[in-house]
Design goal:
The chain is mainly alpha-helical. Helices cover 61% and strands 0% of the residues.
């Protein structure tokens, strides 16, 4: 079913429908190198879903809680702000893919905050699954295996950086 008012090809489907279930990432993936092609694919695809960011965020959180309902307790009752934050961090990351070092401190800080919300390393693979599913739903046939690979690399780099920030914060707390 086509989303009302969607002009970018975003397809709204129920979170229970999986066309191709993405494989779960390991809890501690090795960060892959991003190529110029990866960056181009991620930026092009994000530009297609950005105009329907509210629907994209809805699909993401619906899928996340379908996959792992127990995670719902880690979030506020009203997800409106959380959805805005998700799309904002994705937008920032996509915009800085050619210079991830510039956003690494902010991404590490995000990871440290998430650790304070009881986020565990295994949650990152679940989020990856929900994100890839959301992108697949939003982009349809345009979400090629190459594009999925590029997004997986980007997410892995971001998740690894967040987990590094969480570990560093835990080490600082332990040293106090």
């Amino acid at each position: 079913m086509r989303a009302a008012g969607a002009t970018n090809g975003l397809v709204a489907v129920s979170p229970q429908r999986t066309v191709h279930a993405p494989a779960r990432l390991s809890a501690a993936p090795v960060a892959p190198a991003l190529t110029a092609r990866d960056i181009g694919l991620v930026r092009t695809s994000f530009a297609r879903i950005a105009p329907t960011k509210d629907l994209t965020a809805d699909l993401f959180y619906d899928r996340l809680f379908f996959i792992a309902g127990d995670l719902r307790a880690l979030f506020p009752d009203d997800l409106a702000e959380q959805k805005k934050k998700l799309m904002a961090i994705l937008s920032t990351a996509v915009g800085r893919l050619d210079n991830l070092a510039a956003i690494a401190p902010a991404v590490k800080a995000l990871g440290a905050r998430h650790a304070g919300y009881s986020t565990r390393p295994e949650h990152y693979a679940i989020v990856a699954e929900a994100l890839l599913w959301t992108l697949q739903q939003g982009l349809g046939d345009a979400f090629t295996p190459e594009m999925k690979s590029a997004w997986t690399k980007v997410y892995t780099v971001l998740a690894d950086t967040m987990q590094q920030g969480a570990s560093e914060a835990a080490a600082l707390r332990a040293a106090e």
